[in-house]
Protein backbone atom coordinates (compact mmCIF):
# COMPACT_ATOMS: atom_id res chain seq x y z
CA UNK A 1 0.00 0.00 0.00
CA UNK A 2 2.65 2.57 1.03
CA UNK A 3 5.34 3.20 -1.57
CA UNK A 4 8.59 4.51 -0.16
CA UNK A 5 11.91 5.34 -1.82
CA UNK A 6 15.39 6.17 -0.50
CA UNK A 7 16.33 9.85 -0.49
CA UNK A 8 19.03 11.43 -2.61
CA UNK A 9 19.53 13.80 0.26
CA UNK A 10 21.03 17.23 0.54
CA UNK A 11 23.13 17.81 3.65
CA UNK A 12 25.46 20.43 5.05
CA UNK A 13 28.93 20.12 3.53
CA UNK A 14 31.16 17.88 5.61
CA UNK A 15 33.28 20.89 6.59
CA UNK A 16 30.33 21.93 8.79
CA UNK A 17 30.00 18.58 10.58
CA UNK A 18 31.53 19.85 13.83
CA UNK A 19 29.13 22.83 13.75
CA UNK A 20 26.00 20.83 12.98
CA UNK A 21 24.50 21.46 16.43
CA UNK A 22 24.46 25.19 15.61
CA UNK A 23 22.95 24.65 12.16
CA UNK A 24 19.94 22.56 13.12
CA UNK A 25 16.66 24.06 14.34
CA UNK A 26 13.36 23.04 15.97
CA UNK A 27 10.33 22.36 13.78
CA UNK A 28 8.46 25.47 12.70
CA UNK A 29 5.51 24.89 15.06
CA UNK A 30 7.60 24.59 18.24
CA UNK A 31 10.16 27.37 17.79
CA UNK A 32 9.85 29.87 20.62
CA UNK A 33 10.41 33.59 19.99
CA UNK A 34 13.74 33.62 21.84
CA UNK A 35 14.95 30.51 20.02
CA UNK A 36 14.07 32.08 16.68
CA UNK A 37 16.00 35.26 17.46
CA UNK A 38 19.13 33.28 18.30
CA UNK A 39 18.81 30.97 15.30
CA UNK A 40 18.18 33.76 12.78
CA UNK A 41 21.40 35.42 13.92
CA UNK A 42 23.29 32.48 12.42
CA UNK A 43 23.25 33.11 8.63
CA UNK A 44 23.69 29.39 7.90
CA UNK A 45 21.11 27.96 10.28
CA UNK A 46 18.46 25.75 8.66
CA UNK A 47 15.67 27.94 10.08
CA UNK A 48 16.20 30.24 7.07
CA UNK A 49 14.75 27.42 4.93
CA UNK A 50 12.15 26.01 7.32
CA UNK A 51 10.74 29.22 8.87
CA UNK A 52 11.93 32.04 6.58
CA UNK A 53 11.43 35.70 7.45
CA UNK A 54 10.41 38.81 5.51
CA UNK A 55 7.41 40.12 3.59
CA UNK A 56 7.81 37.29 1.06
CA UNK A 57 9.22 34.47 3.20
CA UNK A 58 8.85 31.70 0.61
CA UNK A 59 10.79 33.68 -2.00
CA UNK A 60 13.43 34.57 0.57
CA UNK A 61 13.88 30.86 1.34
CA UNK A 62 14.22 30.08 -2.37
CA UNK A 63 16.93 32.73 -2.79
CA UNK A 64 18.74 31.51 0.32
CA UNK A 65 18.61 27.91 -0.93
CA UNK A 66 19.98 28.85 -4.35
CA UNK A 67 22.90 30.68 -2.72
CA UNK A 68 23.65 27.80 -0.33
CA UNK A 69 23.72 25.35 -3.22
CA UNK A 70 25.98 27.63 -5.28
CA UNK A 71 28.36 28.20 -2.35
CA UNK A 72 28.32 24.48 -1.46
CA UNK A 73 26.96 25.13 1.99
CA UNK A 74 24.63 22.27 1.08
CA UNK A 75 25.71 19.36 -1.14
CA UNK A 76 23.73 16.44 -2.50
CA UNK A 77 24.43 12.74 -2.06
CA UNK A 78 25.42 11.04 -5.30
CA UNK A 79 23.25 7.99 -4.53
CA UNK A 80 20.05 7.71 -2.47
CA UNK A 81 19.93 6.25 1.01
CA UNK A 82 17.67 5.28 3.87
CA UNK A 83 18.63 7.57 6.76
CA UNK A 84 18.56 5.90 10.17
CA UNK A 85 17.60 8.36 12.90
CA UNK A 86 17.78 7.54 16.63
CA UNK A 87 16.81 9.90 19.48
CA UNK A 88 17.98 9.17 23.03
CA UNK A 89 16.12 10.90 25.87
CA UNK A 90 14.83 10.79 29.44
CA UNK A 91 11.58 12.22 30.76
CA UNK A 92 11.31 13.64 34.30
CA UNK A 93 11.39 10.82 36.85
CA UNK A 94 12.58 8.30 34.26
CA UNK A 95 15.55 6.25 35.46
CA UNK A 96 16.57 4.55 32.22
CA UNK A 97 17.30 6.23 28.93
CA UNK A 98 14.79 5.74 26.10
CA UNK A 99 15.67 5.48 22.43
CA UNK A 100 13.14 6.17 19.70
CA UNK A 101 14.36 4.33 16.61
CA UNK A 102 13.34 5.23 13.09
CA UNK A 103 14.42 5.99 9.55
CA UNK A 104 13.85 8.75 6.99
CA UNK A 105 12.70 8.04 3.44
CA UNK A 106 10.47 9.39 0.68
CA UNK A 107 6.80 8.38 0.63
CA UNK A 108 4.20 9.21 -1.97
CA UNK A 109 2.01 12.11 -0.83
CA UNK A 110 -1.14 10.00 -0.77
CA UNK A 111 -4.40 11.90 -0.50
CA UNK A 112 -6.40 11.19 2.66
CA UNK A 113 -9.17 9.37 0.80
CA UNK A 114 -6.69 6.80 -0.57
CA UNK A 115 -6.50 5.30 2.92
CA UNK A 116 -2.73 4.77 2.87
CA UNK A 117 -1.63 7.63 5.13
CA UNK A 118 -4.08 8.09 8.00
CA UNK A 119 -4.48 11.30 10.01
CA UNK A 120 -5.75 11.59 13.56
CA UNK A 121 -6.23 15.34 14.03
CA UNK A 122 -7.45 18.41 12.20
CA UNK A 123 -5.10 21.04 10.79
CA UNK A 124 -4.93 24.83 11.13
CA UNK A 125 -5.67 26.29 7.69
CA UNK A 126 -3.10 29.13 7.65
CA UNK A 127 -0.25 26.81 8.57
CA UNK A 128 -1.10 24.54 5.61
CA UNK A 129 -1.16 27.49 3.17
CA UNK A 130 2.24 28.68 4.39
CA UNK A 131 3.74 25.22 3.81
CA UNK A 132 2.30 25.02 0.27
CA UNK A 133 3.79 28.40 -0.67
CA UNK A 134 7.19 27.41 0.71
CA UNK A 135 7.16 24.12 -1.21
CA UNK A 136 6.16 25.81 -4.46
CA UNK A 137 8.97 28.35 -4.15
CA UNK A 138 11.78 26.00 -3.12
CA UNK A 139 10.79 22.45 -4.19
CA UNK A 140 12.75 21.55 -1.06
CA UNK A 141 11.76 19.80 2.16
CA UNK A 142 13.78 21.00 5.18
CA UNK A 143 12.16 18.67 7.73
CA UNK A 144 10.53 15.25 7.75
CA UNK A 145 7.01 14.62 8.94
CA UNK A 146 6.58 11.72 11.38
CA UNK A 147 4.72 8.56 10.39
CA UNK A 148 4.05 5.33 12.28
CA UNK A 149 3.97 1.85 10.79
CA UNK A 150 3.00 -1.36 12.58
CA UNK A 151 5.52 -4.20 12.66
CA UNK A 152 5.29 -6.46 15.70
CA UNK A 153 8.37 -8.39 14.52
CA UNK A 154 10.57 -5.27 14.47
CA UNK A 155 12.10 -6.72 11.30
CA UNK A 156 13.99 -3.57 10.25
CA UNK A 157 15.60 -2.90 13.60
CA UNK A 158 18.61 -5.16 13.04
CA UNK A 159 19.62 -3.15 9.96
CA UNK A 160 19.09 0.16 11.74
CA UNK A 161 21.07 -0.92 14.81
CA UNK A 162 23.99 -1.92 12.58
CA UNK A 163 23.93 1.35 10.63
CA UNK A 164 23.78 3.57 13.72
CA UNK A 165 27.14 2.18 14.85
CA UNK A 166 28.73 4.39 12.16
CA UNK A 167 26.94 7.73 12.52
CA UNK A 168 27.20 10.80 10.31
CA UNK A 169 26.11 13.07 13.19
CA UNK A 170 25.93 12.59 16.95
CA UNK A 171 24.81 15.73 18.79
CA UNK A 172 22.68 17.15 21.59
CA UNK A 173 19.72 19.26 20.48
CA UNK A 174 17.70 22.14 21.98
CA UNK A 175 15.54 19.65 23.95
CA UNK A 176 18.58 18.04 25.57
CA UNK A 177 17.96 15.01 23.36
CA UNK A 178 20.86 13.09 21.84
CA UNK A 179 20.32 12.95 18.08
CA UNK A 180 22.17 10.35 15.99
CA UNK A 181 21.94 10.04 12.20
CA UNK A 182 23.38 7.34 9.93
CA UNK A 183 22.76 6.19 6.36
CA UNK A 184 22.13 2.88 4.57
CA UNK A 185 23.05 2.92 0.87
CA UNK A 186 23.22 -0.84 0.28
CA UNK A 187 20.60 -1.54 -2.41
CA UNK A 188 19.69 -5.00 -1.07
CA UNK A 189 19.01 -3.66 2.43
CA UNK A 190 17.06 -0.68 1.06
CA UNK A 191 14.91 -3.14 -0.87
CA UNK A 192 14.03 -4.85 2.43
CA UNK A 193 12.77 -1.55 3.87
CA UNK A 194 10.65 -0.95 0.77
CA UNK A 195 9.21 -4.47 0.98
CA UNK A 196 8.30 -4.26 4.67
CA UNK A 197 6.50 -0.92 4.29
CA UNK A 198 4.70 -1.62 1.01
CA UNK A 199 1.82 -3.53 2.68
CA UNK A 200 1.43 -1.05 5.56
CA UNK A 201 -0.84 1.83 6.31
CA UNK A 202 1.02 4.82 7.72
CA UNK A 203 -0.37 6.72 10.69
CA UNK A 204 0.64 10.37 10.61
CA UNK A 205 1.96 11.19 14.07
CA UNK A 206 3.35 14.67 13.54
CA UNK A 207 3.51 17.13 10.67
CA UNK A 208 -0.11 17.19 9.50
CA UNK A 209 0.34 20.70 8.06
CA UNK A 210 3.50 19.83 6.12
CA UNK A 211 1.99 16.61 4.82
CA UNK A 212 -1.24 18.31 3.79
CA UNK A 213 0.88 20.97 2.09
CA UNK A 214 2.61 18.19 0.10
CA UNK A 215 -0.79 16.81 -0.96
CA UNK A 216 -1.94 20.23 -2.17
CA UNK A 217 1.33 20.83 -4.02
CA UNK A 218 1.06 17.42 -5.72
CA UNK A 219 -2.49 18.21 -6.83
CA UNK A 220 -1.45 21.56 -8.30
CA UNK A 221 1.36 19.91 -10.30
CA UNK A 222 -0.89 17.09 -11.47
CA UNK A 223 -3.46 19.57 -12.85
CA UNK A 224 -0.93 21.15 -15.20
CA UNK A 225 0.78 17.92 -16.30
CA UNK A 226 -1.30 16.02 -18.87
CA UNK A 227 1.40 13.31 -18.99
CA UNK A 228 1.26 12.62 -15.23
CA UNK A 229 2.53 9.11 -14.41
CA UNK A 230 2.64 9.15 -10.60
CA UNK A 231 6.41 8.76 -10.49
CA UNK A 232 7.37 12.43 -10.90
CA UNK A 233 9.32 14.04 -8.08
CA UNK A 234 6.37 16.17 -6.97
CA UNK A 235 4.57 13.00 -5.90
CA UNK A 236 6.96 12.40 -3.01
CA UNK A 237 7.39 13.67 0.51
CA UNK A 238 10.09 13.19 3.17
CA UNK A 239 8.93 11.26 6.24
CA UNK A 240 10.49 9.87 9.42
CA UNK A 241 9.11 6.39 10.14
CA UNK A 242 8.91 4.75 13.55
CA UNK A 243 7.33 1.49 14.62
CA UNK A 244 4.03 1.99 16.47
CA UNK A 245 4.90 -1.10 18.54
CA UNK A 246 8.07 0.47 19.92
CA UNK A 247 8.23 0.66 23.71
CA UNK A 248 9.86 4.09 23.52
CA UNK A 249 7.10 6.07 21.80
CA UNK A 250 6.01 8.96 24.01
CA UNK A 251 2.97 11.22 23.58
CA UNK A 252 2.80 14.36 25.73
CA UNK A 253 -0.18 16.72 26.19
CA UNK A 254 -0.62 20.03 24.40
CA UNK A 255 -2.37 22.70 26.47
CA UNK A 256 -4.67 25.47 25.22
CA UNK A 257 -4.12 29.19 25.77
CA UNK A 258 -7.00 31.59 25.04
CA UNK A 259 -6.58 35.28 24.22
CA UNK A 260 -8.93 38.17 23.51
CA UNK A 261 -11.78 37.15 25.83
CA UNK A 262 -13.28 39.73 28.18
CA UNK A 263 -14.91 37.40 30.72
CA UNK A 264 -14.75 38.41 34.37
CA UNK A 265 -13.52 35.44 36.40
CA UNK A 266 -16.77 34.87 38.29
CA UNK A 267 -18.84 35.18 35.13
CA UNK A 268 -16.66 32.65 33.31
CA UNK A 269 -16.84 30.19 36.21
CA UNK A 270 -20.62 30.52 36.21
CA UNK A 271 -20.76 29.72 32.48
CA UNK A 272 -18.44 26.73 32.98
CA UNK A 273 -20.54 25.41 35.87
CA UNK A 274 -23.41 24.73 33.51
CA UNK A 275 -21.43 21.75 32.17
CA UNK A 276 -18.51 21.15 34.54
CA UNK A 277 -17.91 20.61 38.22
CA UNK A 278 -15.49 23.34 39.33
CA UNK A 279 -13.04 23.05 42.23
CA UNK A 280 -10.63 25.80 43.23
CA UNK A 281 -7.07 24.67 43.90
CA UNK A 282 -4.57 26.02 46.39
CA UNK A 283 -1.66 25.90 43.97
CA UNK A 284 -1.32 25.69 40.19
CA UNK A 285 1.33 23.00 40.76
CA UNK A 286 -1.48 20.65 41.82
CA UNK A 287 -3.16 20.64 38.43
CA UNK A 288 -1.31 17.88 36.61
CA UNK A 289 -1.56 15.41 39.50
CA UNK A 290 -5.24 16.08 40.21
CA UNK A 291 -6.45 15.65 36.63
CA UNK A 292 -4.16 12.77 35.69
CA UNK A 293 -6.41 9.82 36.53
CA UNK A 294 -9.73 11.57 36.05
CA UNK A 295 -11.85 11.15 32.94
CA UNK A 296 -12.94 14.42 31.28
CA UNK A 297 -10.96 16.48 33.83
CA UNK A 298 -8.87 19.57 32.99
CA UNK A 299 -6.97 22.33 34.67
CA UNK A 300 -8.10 25.94 34.30
CA UNK A 301 -5.86 28.92 35.03
CA UNK A 302 -7.41 32.40 35.30
CA UNK A 303 -5.01 35.11 36.42
CA UNK A 304 -3.27 33.78 39.53
CA UNK A 305 -6.05 31.29 40.32
CA UNK A 306 -6.15 27.61 39.39
CA UNK A 307 -9.15 25.31 39.12
CA UNK A 308 -9.89 21.71 38.36
CA UNK A 309 -12.90 21.33 36.07
CA UNK A 310 -14.56 18.02 35.28
CA UNK A 311 -17.49 17.36 32.95
CA UNK A 312 -20.74 16.35 34.62
CA UNK A 313 -21.09 12.84 33.15
CA UNK A 314 -24.82 13.31 32.57
CA UNK A 315 -23.99 15.94 29.95
CA UNK A 316 -22.06 13.59 27.64
CA UNK A 317 -25.38 12.67 26.02
CA UNK A 318 -25.80 16.30 24.97
CA UNK A 319 -22.99 15.88 22.47
CA UNK A 320 -24.43 15.73 18.92
CA UNK A 321 -25.08 12.23 17.57
CA UNK A 322 -23.09 13.01 14.41
CA UNK A 323 -19.89 13.05 16.49
CA UNK A 324 -18.66 9.43 16.13
CA UNK A 325 -18.40 7.15 19.16
CA UNK A 326 -14.66 6.64 18.65
CA UNK A 327 -13.95 10.32 19.42
CA UNK A 328 -16.96 11.55 21.45
CA UNK A 329 -15.57 10.16 24.71
CA UNK A 330 -12.03 11.48 24.23
CA UNK A 331 -10.96 14.15 26.72
CA UNK A 332 -10.02 16.65 24.01
CA UNK A 333 -13.28 16.16 22.14
CA UNK A 334 -15.17 16.85 25.37
CA UNK A 335 -13.03 19.92 25.96
CA UNK A 336 -13.47 21.36 22.48
CA UNK A 337 -17.21 20.73 22.40
CA UNK A 338 -18.40 21.62 25.90
CA UNK A 339 -15.84 24.32 26.75
CA UNK A 340 -14.71 25.88 23.47
CA UNK A 341 -18.02 25.61 21.60
CA UNK A 342 -20.68 25.72 24.33
CA UNK A 343 -19.02 28.03 26.87
CA UNK A 344 -16.88 30.23 24.59
CA UNK A 345 -19.14 30.13 21.56
CA UNK A 346 -16.59 29.02 18.94
CA UNK A 347 -18.18 26.23 16.82
CA UNK A 348 -16.12 23.07 16.29
CA UNK A 349 -15.85 23.72 12.55
CA UNK A 350 -14.39 27.19 13.11
CA UNK A 351 -11.93 26.36 15.87
CA UNK A 352 -9.11 25.42 13.50
CA UNK A 353 -9.33 28.93 12.01
CA UNK A 354 -9.49 30.79 15.33
CA UNK A 355 -6.73 33.23 16.23
CA UNK A 356 -7.91 33.24 19.86
CA UNK A 357 -6.60 29.72 20.58
CA UNK A 358 -2.88 29.00 20.99
CA UNK A 359 -1.27 25.63 21.65
CA UNK A 360 1.50 25.18 24.21
CA UNK A 361 3.23 22.07 25.55
CA UNK A 362 4.98 23.71 28.47
CA UNK A 363 2.76 24.11 31.56
CA UNK A 364 4.96 26.80 33.07
CA UNK A 365 4.68 28.96 29.96
CA UNK A 366 0.88 28.64 30.17
CA UNK A 367 1.02 29.83 33.78
CA UNK A 368 3.35 32.75 33.07
CA UNK A 369 1.39 33.94 30.05
CA UNK A 370 -1.87 33.82 31.98
CA UNK A 371 -0.59 35.45 35.19
CA UNK A 372 1.07 38.23 33.18
CA UNK A 373 -2.24 39.05 31.50
CA UNK A 374 -0.99 38.17 28.00
CA UNK A 375 -3.65 35.43 27.95
CA UNK A 376 -7.25 35.52 29.11
CA UNK A 377 -6.99 32.02 30.61
CA UNK A 378 -5.43 28.62 29.91
CA UNK A 379 -6.68 25.04 29.88
CA UNK A 380 -4.36 22.24 30.97
CA UNK A 381 -4.87 18.87 29.30
CA UNK A 382 -3.67 15.27 29.64
CA UNK A 383 -1.85 13.09 27.14
CA UNK A 384 -3.65 10.65 24.83
CA UNK A 385 -2.68 6.96 24.54
CA UNK A 386 -1.12 5.32 21.50
CA UNK A 387 -4.07 2.92 21.34
CA UNK A 388 -6.49 5.85 21.12
CA UNK A 389 -4.48 7.37 18.28
CA UNK A 390 -4.53 4.08 16.36
CA UNK A 391 -8.27 3.63 16.90
CA UNK A 392 -9.09 7.12 15.66
CA UNK A 393 -6.82 6.84 12.61
CA UNK A 394 -8.27 3.50 11.54
CA UNK A 395 -11.82 4.80 11.99
CA UNK A 396 -11.26 7.52 9.39
CA UNK A 397 -12.28 10.26 11.83
CA UNK A 398 -10.14 13.03 13.32
CA UNK A 399 -9.55 14.56 16.72
CA UNK A 400 -9.29 18.31 17.38
CA UNK A 401 -6.16 20.04 16.15
CA UNK A 402 -2.99 19.64 18.24
CA UNK A 403 -4.31 16.58 20.07
CA UNK A 404 -0.93 14.88 20.32
CA UNK A 405 2.67 15.88 20.94
CA UNK A 406 4.97 13.01 20.03
CA UNK A 407 8.15 13.48 22.03
CA UNK A 408 10.88 14.15 21.19
CA UNK A 409 10.28 16.35 18.19
CA UNK A 410 12.43 15.63 15.15
CA UNK A 411 15.04 18.17 14.13
CA UNK A 412 15.29 20.34 11.00
CA UNK A 413 18.64 20.56 9.26
CA UNK A 414 20.09 17.07 9.62
CA UNK A 415 19.13 16.34 6.02
CA UNK A 416 16.96 17.83 3.29
CA UNK A 417 14.99 16.34 0.40
CA UNK A 418 14.61 17.93 -3.02
CA UNK A 419 11.62 17.39 -5.28
CA UNK A 420 13.21 19.31 -8.13
CA UNK A 421 13.01 16.72 -10.92
CA UNK A 422 16.66 16.98 -11.97
CA UNK A 423 17.82 16.49 -8.37
CA UNK A 424 15.31 13.75 -7.58
CA UNK A 425 15.83 11.59 -10.69
CA UNK A 426 17.45 8.16 -10.17
CA UNK A 427 16.83 4.59 -11.45
CA UNK A 428 14.83 3.66 -8.34
CA UNK A 429 13.71 0.38 -9.96
CA UNK A 430 17.06 -1.07 -8.86
CA UNK A 431 15.63 -1.28 -5.33
CA UNK A 432 12.75 -3.57 -6.28
CA UNK A 433 13.35 -7.00 -4.77
When the domains are counted, the total is 2
Structural class: alpha+beta
Count of DSSP H/I helices: 16
* C-alpha-based Rg, rounded: 22 Å
Mean pLDDT: 90
Major sheet: 9 strands, mixed
**What is the tally of beta strands?**
23
The outline comes out as globular
Low-confidence stretches are: none
Reconstruct the topology from this structure.
Elements: E1 4-5, E2 10-12, H1 20-23, E3 25-26, H2 33-40, H3 47-50, H4 57-70, E4 74-76, E5 82-89, E6 98-108, E7 117-118, H5 125-138, E8 140-141, E9 145-149, H6 157-163, E10 169-172, E11 178-184, H7 187-197, E12 202-206, H8 208-223, E13 236-243, E14 250-252, E15 255-258, H9 265-272, E16 276-281, H10 287-291, E17 297-302, E18 305-311, H11 325-328, H12 331-343, H13 348-351, E19 357-360, H14 363-371, E20 377-380, H15 386-395, E21 405-407, E22 411-412, E23 417-418, H16 421-424
Helix pairs in contact: 4-5, 5-8
Amino acid sequence: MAEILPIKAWRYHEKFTKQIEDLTSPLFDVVSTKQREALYNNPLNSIHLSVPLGENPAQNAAECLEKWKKDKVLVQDKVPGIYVYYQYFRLPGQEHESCRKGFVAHIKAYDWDEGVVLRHENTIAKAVNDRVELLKATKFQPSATHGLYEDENHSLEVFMDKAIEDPIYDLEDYQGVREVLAVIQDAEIIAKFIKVIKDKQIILADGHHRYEGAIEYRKSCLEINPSHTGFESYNYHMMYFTNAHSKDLRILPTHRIFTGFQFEEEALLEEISEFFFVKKLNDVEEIEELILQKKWAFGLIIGEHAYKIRLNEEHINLMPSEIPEVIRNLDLMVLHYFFVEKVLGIPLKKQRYSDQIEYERNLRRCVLKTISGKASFSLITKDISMNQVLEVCKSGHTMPQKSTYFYPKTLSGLLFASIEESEFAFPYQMYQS
